[in-house]
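_Backbone structure tokens_
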Amino acid sequence: MADVPVGLVGRTAETAAVEGLAREVATGVGRALLIEGEPGIGKTALLSHAEEQAHRFGLRVFSGAADEIDQRLPFAAISTCLGARATTGETRDAGVDALIRGAGWTSTPLGVEAADAAFSESFLAQVDQLCASGPLALVLDDLQWADGASLRVLAELSRSLGQLPVLLVGACRTAPPGGPELDRLRRTLPERGATVLTLEPLDEGTVRELVTRMLGARPEEDLLRLMKDAGGNPLYVTQLVETFTASGAIRVTDGTVETSVPTTTPSLRAAVLQRLNFLSPEALSVLRVASVLGAGITVEDLAVVAARPVHDVLGVLMDARDAGVLNEKGGRFSFRRTVVRQALYDDLPGPLRAAFHLEAGLALAETPAPPELIAEHLTLGTPSGSPRVIDWLVENGEQLIVGVPRLAVELLRPALDCADATEPRRGRLHILLAAALLRSGRAAEAEDQARRALAHHHDLASEGTIWWILARAPYVTGEPELAWAEIEHARTSVVLSEIETVRLQAFGSVVLLALGELDRAEKMARDAERDALGLGDINALSDAYQTLALLHLLRGETRRGLDRAERALRMARDENAPVDKQIPLHLIRGYCLLALARTQEADEAMGFSQQVAKQLWDHVPLCDLSRAQVMFADGRWDDALVEIQAGLEPSNESLPKPLHSLAAVIAVHRNDFVTARTHLGAVENATDSAPQKFFFDHLAVWAACELEEAEGDAGRALDRCLALVGEGFVTVMSSVLAFFAPRVVGLALNAGNTEFARELTVAVESRAATGVPDGISAFAAHCRGLLDNDPDVLLEASHFYDRFSWVLFRALYHEDVAAALAEAGRMPDARAALNRAMDVYAGLDATWDATRAASRLRALGVRRGHRGLRGRPTSGWDSLTDTEVAVASLVAQGLSNPDVGARLRISRRTVQTHVSNILSKLSLGSRVELATEVTSHHLQSQP
């Protein structure tokens, strides 16, 4: 036991567990450890042991600690491990910072959740990259004070431990209870296989051993009885022994312990403070101020706040460092023990602490300190509407809103409440608060705040920011009709600047498009385009071009839409338009390419937009859904499901309905009706907040229709299709959904509704006369051939279907052709057409379609012979999709998930899902095992 540090006395089992975890991670697997216990119980000592063991087994170690003062700053805790605070602008990726700042503080390119996700993705990608060079340990203390964003990063990281060689170690107090994010992490980690060590108080024998180790002699029973008041807390015991020794109450002479200790023991905090009595009153005063500043104290900042000369403060800090009270790293000081800083901080009366924070904020405002740090102190300080606070808010509010909008809200509200009624800048504070609320995702409150500002400050009516907030707030919550009402009012009743007018005009075209008013949207977009070109405003031009390109797509004018999108993208790149303005144009371009049967280019376009968006935003369901639709069309259904899963995790309120709907369609065609019903149930219970939800309403109807037909209820399926057709051929979605028409005609004929089948066929034939959209003549021939049961008319569409992007609909066409040929007695041709359909169904693993087609043609006297449908195996190498094989090969080459994603133009999260699927299918436990398996498989595959 002689070599065991004092802080680990009595922790043999715990240290062994830590050693075992470090050893496992060194072999290439991920592990997590959560250490819990009361203050002083030994958590930090065990963390230090974890770091030592990690070094011993060759792991690179990244360690840090959360700070109570930094709880409001997103990613403050995780940044102590992995780099500079995201909120200060010292981001690891300048593109992340640029996108989050977007078009300005009043814009909502992200919202706070998406902005958090952007930084979260940056940290997770960093860990991925580090793991490519070998195993590592992330060690974070004082999780009870960690900000919510950091805790979410840790929770997300714990999901990856099945494939990343990371030892994730955290420590937190058991009381008082943490917030919801910490509670969630505490529940999540054990569910994902983490080891949880709850440190219990030391028993009497271990306390005796600890005191003996400290004194170098066996203690008297009187002293040990007094130690019972410490409740087995090793830090408390240590502080008592050191305090009594320093005061002379404990003396060790020739191996004998003599004591004259008091009959009662001081509290832990009192014991800690007594241990600091060797410092001068002046030094203690400076350290109390330092406790207010938190971790990472600089001499200059402390000198400003303490109102002391720099050389005096430096002397105090150096003395405290030499005495073991402080640590120094890179010119910054921090308390060596959290409990010491906490004791000094808690020793300050509450009002005095708040006053110190206020003065700290105001003093730091005169320095180059980050605005977020200043705001943090002002928020913790005494609420104030003083001119100095308002001066700072007016000058720095916009930057604060961009970086930490939630903190801005916390600071702006009390400032408004405390500001004098005659303060001339109250109106400006109202606008800043409304913008902060909008950027925080609290659109309803933002709208209310903007209206209150207008009601009390009529001079703000000409302030374009107010009207932008009033229009943007309802739009982002999925209420475009209310957004349009505000735009109309501002345009007709308010005198705005030219640039504010054209921006509202361009945004108005986007809103009108979401309302389905295509003609009005087009006129407004063209007017905005003209005016924006005159003013040279790239933000307005981006919105106008987005509207015009999407209009062409919706009307089936795909070539014109493609040309408009590509010209707009060239302009956006040349003019350095905000990236968030470019991503919708890439998506529109992708949909145009898909409609033109240029599937590979469509996938590349969607992949590019997805890759850019996920590097910056992390979680963009619209990009996931768009990529999934291209993959579904191209017949890569397993890859589409991975993208759908990425779009649905973590849970979101943006487009869950179409994502679940597309997954349900795949499940139906694969004869998995239980999964299909599960997804459709999620559709019924989900609420979409995305403004784009209007464009995907047909997916839910399609999925439900497919399931009802598969379960034999063609009549009910047709009723649902009537709603789909109403959306598809009467309103704006007609051209986009034209390829559904033959499917609906066939369903109507099966349900015995020949009249409707004829009506729909005539409607499609009328549209075919316009030549829009591409393929409309083939769809018309398909419909007419089904209606008249004429194989020759059906075959007129063969040239188009042979290159049609949607693989499933190509197979359905060949099945229809086979049936018509069989009824005409042309059996060899019918069998050939059936084989073409069945080959596609086999590649899709579409067992329901294959069973239906075989039964349908068997009834007409056509059999496929011995070419039965063989589904893909569920395990082993043959079960891997082409994408999974590519991912496995790149992982075996040592590439990180972000690098694999860059090669394949998919997101890091999507790669992570693929790797998890690969490990499961191959029954492997880590990336190391996967690399070995890939090598072995390649060797076995060689002749």
About this structure: Residues 84-103, 727-734 have pLDDT under 50 and may be disordered. Residues 111-131 form the longest helix (21 residues). The radius of gyration is 34 Å.
